[in-house]
Amino acid sequence: MHKVKSSSKYIDKAKAASAKPALLGEDLDLESYVSSAEEQPYRDDPLQLPVETKEQMMEVGVTLDNMNQRSGTFLQVDNAPIHFSRRQEGLEVMSTSEALEKYQWLVDYYWRAVPVDSDKYTAHVELNQSDGYFIRALPGIKTTYPVQACLYLAKANLAQNVHNIIIAEEGSELHIITGCTTGLREEPGLHIGITEFYIKKGAKITFTMIHRWTPKVAVRPRTGAIVEENGLFMNNYVILKSVRSLQMYPTAWCMGENSTARYNTILIATSGSTIDVGSRVFLRARESKTEIIARAITSGGTITSRGYIEGNCPEVKGHLECRGLILAGEGIIHAIPELRGTVAGVNLSHEAAIGKIAEEEVEYLMSRGLTRAEATATIVRGFLRVDIEGLPSMLSAEIERAVQASEKELM
Questions:
Q1: 20 to 30 A Cα–Cα from 392, which one of 63, 157, 188, 287?
Q2: Of 238, 382, 246, whose CA–CA distance to 302 is shortest?
Q3: pLDDT, tens digit (0-9, with 9 covering 90-100), for 260-269
C-alpha cells in the first residue's frame, strides 16, 4: 500500500492545531494511543478473514458472503486498507492513497469539506499520513446495489486514523453503507474518521453508517458535505451498543439552488456511554432545504443531541426534530435544537421532546397478550423507526435489522 503524501500547507496548519481541543465533547489525550500497527496483508478474497471478524462486520451491514449484492467493497483493518473492489462499471472504489497516486486533481478535494485545523483530531489524521476509502460515481452513473465499506479496529490502544473522499459526479446516484466496528472487548481504542462528500449538480448520495463499539472505545468522526445545484445528500447514522465516548457534528453546506441535505440519526446509549452527536446544515442558495431528525434512547448513558440550521438566503426551508426516550432512572438526554436566520424570507422550524414509556401503552399491549418485556420492546422499536423518504429498501432493511439486534442490550 502507498503512503498518503501530505501537502506542506496542510502539515503546517495541522501542526498549529495539534493541541486544539474540540469545541464540544470530552477532550481526549491522544498521546495515550499509538498510531502504528502491524501491516495487514492485502486480501484478494476477503472471505479469508477470520470467522469472528466477518461476523462482526456483518453486524454493521457489511456482507462478504454475498458480495454480488454490493456494487463495490472496501475493507480497512486498523490503519491499512486490506481489500477494495467494484462490481459495477462507472464506479471507482479504492484507497485514498491509490486514488491520490492516480489522480493529481484529487488534492483539490482534500480538506475542503472538513478543515484540517478544525481540532486536534483532524490534525492528528493529517500528521499521521492516514489512508481510507475513495468512492466515486462517474457522471450519470447510478448504483444498482450499495457500495459497502468497513473500518475495523483490531489493535488495542490504537488510534485508527482514516480519511475518506466520496464524489458523486453530475447526474450520478451513489448509495453507500459503511459499518465501523471492533474486535476489542475490554481494551481501549480510538477511531478518528474524516469523511468528505462532494455532491455535484443533480447528483445524489445516500450514506448509511452503522456503528458498533465496545465500552472502552472512543470515537471522533469529522464529516463535511458540499451539495451543488439540485443535489441531494442523505445521511443516516445508527450507533449501537456501548461506547465510552462519542462526539461528532457532521455538517452540510447547500451551495446550489434547490440543493437538499437530510440527516436521520438513531442514538442508543447504555450505562457508561457518553454520546454528543448533532447535525448541522447551512442553507446558502435559493430553495435549498434540509430536514434533521434524531431519535435518542438511553438505558443509563448520557446523550447530547444537537441540531443546527442556518438560513443565509431567501426562500430556504429547514426543519429539525429531536425526540428522546429514557428507559432507566440514571439516563440523561440533553436536546439542543438551534435555528439561525440571517436574511428575510427563510422558513425554519424545530421541535424537541424527551419522555419515558407511558405505562398505559405497556398495559394496553400486555392486555393483547404480550409480556411486559415484549411490550416495552415493541414500543422502543416503534419509537426508533424513522420513515426515511427515498431510502432504498436494502438500506432500510439494514437499519431495521441493526435496531432489532440492539434491543436485548437496551432491555
A1: 287
A2: 246
A3: 999 999 898 8
Given a cut of 80, whether residue 390 has pLDDT beyond it is: no
- 291 and 266 part of one domain: yes
**Residue that the C-alpha cell 471492533 belongs to:** 182
Long-range contacts of 379-383 (CB under 8 A, 24+ apart): 380/297, 380/325, 380/327, 380/407, 380/410, 380/411, 381/407, 383/295, 383/297, 383/323, 383/325
In sequence order, which residues have a C-beta less than 8 Å from that of residue 382 and are 6 or more positions away? none
Range of the domain at 378: 359-411
Q: Would 391 be classed as within a structural domain?
A: yes
Does residue 3 sit within a domain? no
- Number of structural domains found in the chain: 2
Phi/psi of residue 55, each to 5°?
-65, -40
In a 3-state reduction of DSSP, which class is residue 3? coil
Can you give the pLDDT at residue 1?
44
Residue 406, pLDDT > 60, answer no
- Tell how many helices (H) and how many strands (E) occur in the chain: 8, 20
Q: Do 210 and 70 sit in the same domain of this protein?
A: yes
How many beta carbons lie within 10 A of that of residue 30, not counting itself? 17
* Strand duo 72-77 + 80-86: pairing: antiparallel
Mean pLDDT of 246-274: 95
Average pLDDT, the chain: 90
